[in-house]
Amino acid sequence: MSVTSAAPSAPGFRLSQLIYDTRYRSTTIQIFALFAFMLAIGWLITNAAQNLAALGKDFDFSFLWNTAGYDVNQRLIEYSSQSTHGRAAILGIINTLVLALVGCVTATVLGILAGVARLSKNWIVARLMTVYVEGFRNVPVLIWIIIVVAVVNESLPQPRAYKDVETGAFVFTNRGAYMPEPLFSRGLGDLDLGLFKVSLDFVAFLIVLGGGVYAMRLIRRWANQKQAETGVRPANVGWIEAGVIVLPLAALLIALGFHLGYPELKGFNFAGGIFIRDSFLGLWIALSLYTGAFIAENVRAGIQAISKGQTEAAFALGIRPSRTMSLVVLPQAMRVIVPPLISQYLNLTKNTSLAIAVGYMDATGTLGGITLNQTGREMETLLLLMAFYLAISLVISLVMNVYNERIKLRER
Amino acid sequence: MKHTCILGAAAVAALAAGAASAATLDDVKAAGTLKCGVTTGLAGFGAPDAAGRWEGFDIAVCRAVAAAVLGDEDKVTFVPTTGKTRFTALASGEIDMLSRVTTWTFSRDTDLGFEFVGVAYYDGQGFMVPKSLGVSSAKELDGATVCIQTGTTTELNLADYFRLNNMSYEPVPIETNAEAQQKYLAGACDVYTTDASGLAATRATFEAPKDHIILPEIISKEPLGPLVRHGDNQWGDIVRWSFNALVAAEEYGVTKANIDDQKANSANPEVRRLLGVEGGLGAMIGLDDEWAYRAIKSQGNYGEVFEEFLGTNTAIGLERGLNAQWTEGGLQYSPPFR
Fold first, then answer.
1. How far is CA A324 from each of CA A121, A308, A328, rounded to the nearest angstrom?
2. Do the Cβ atoms of A376 and B112 come within 8 Å?
3. How much is the pTM?
4. Which of A227, A270, B84, B104 could be a cystine partner for A263, CB 3.0 to 4.6 Å?
5. ipTM greater than 0.90, yes or no?
């Protein structure tokens, strides 16, 4: 019996090795995948370009410098119908950011409260939170937004109803809520930054506040040091800390002639005060409650992920339950909570584009809505809009990832 | 992430651009149905009736074109569009024509790449307010909250009007007429502004129409008409002349009822050409000779359509006004069929 075997192949490279040789196979596949991907993109771009050409449309962003011609109700920067489309877009972006910011803050507060309460030993509180979480998580947020706005529109009184009625500091109408605004009789005026104006009073307020907080931290550090050295905390440190923040602020406000401006019925609507429109109110409430429900679940999962032994150990050391939660459980739970929290913030920010359903003029409403329609530049406006949402999402991810990195378990 | 963005952008572009081929007539014939963009619901101009059949002034134009091209007024797929979606729908080829109270403007005709085929209704922008507000002129509206449909010419007119009169207002942007109606009736806005015909149509659907008045000021010209994509001239001609046939029919006294008699017996050469007895006009636009006959037979002439959906005997109760025939002091005027 003889075995005839082919002569061992010459140690050279053959093409078939690209597929059959495990050393090269993955590279081959990757190169092909990349090639196919580029091809697909190329096809999409040429297809778009050809079809645009067929429609007789060019690709041009100069419309951003043309007069917009339309008015926007919520203006946090100076804007009139004579401003440009570009400025309308910035106005919309600012409106989006404001909504996203207040939404994220309230959603986080609500979420943490609801998440902790859902684990409460109090049966009713825990069940109520379950109802809240399941109710909001399982109904589309658009419906909640529309419901809230409809309730505001239909159930609250019209501004006219307040004729000859004494109104207080807060007024609720079916067009939105009014609250007192801070006014300064000896104000410092505005600082014109070109794009928008910044109130110098506000800047001064922030500076004094920042200085106060800094001084407070210095005092606290000194007190801690003292306590570590002598075992006795200096007397009344808490009062001094509060004083360095409050007193300079009070002095500044008095110097600037601070007073509150109250809303007053003038003609068709109230004038004065800060006006929170029905659309903003609806979006704010609905988005906060909706996202809050998800965050509550994240918080609950985070807390439950911490071993019971940790709590028991803390109790064994004689630490009170509330301090156990804040000093032992929550800091560890944050590691589980923060990563999904990032995606909830992203969701809320992107969900602000639902503003269009209730006429809140966010970036989708101005740039991707009226501007798109009046100029007919779908490609350009949608690309800009996508770039904006992408940028803002990436920034949120970045910030939250940095935070996550800081609270991550330090492995030594 | 970067790649996803580019891919997404390109995908949107490809979708938005769509397949806008040149020969719309062939597409319509091949599909066996005319895709007509209409409103999401505006009484008198276009809304589904109780049985779900679309009825209205704008709808009749769609049906006339379908009757002319496909021989059946029901071979129409109605695509409801909002003020915002209508142009994208037409540009992308999602619809073959748009008949949706759309104002003919310079930039829409040129820059947006559309072709308006005529003016079906001469309109102007007005204001509606509740009587209880005690307002009798638009000049008294300083500081009012105004409901307005976004993506319309009315939005721009409104901004101009208030600016030129040194008045301020609070715009409440709204997507559809139905939504505007709900907001207006709830008092979330003091004023509703749109084309005067639209205001009359909307008011007619209210529970108590008499509690609302339309202010005397008309602040703009709003010639409303059907439109098609720029660049397919044959299709543009078909839609234009299908509409003109309805106008001409009224001028020559051809009605839904007497059309067969007119076709058989009329000695008027204009009528004979219009109804395809002589002249061979149909072949010139790629249709058979009875195209206009079918359009008029199915919808009636312009005057009949107007009276059926908008006229003084309807709930909307609009006078002919500017929309009377030129022979009666109006602006409706069809070029000759020759």
1. 16, 12, 5
2. yes
3. 0.80
4. A270
5. no
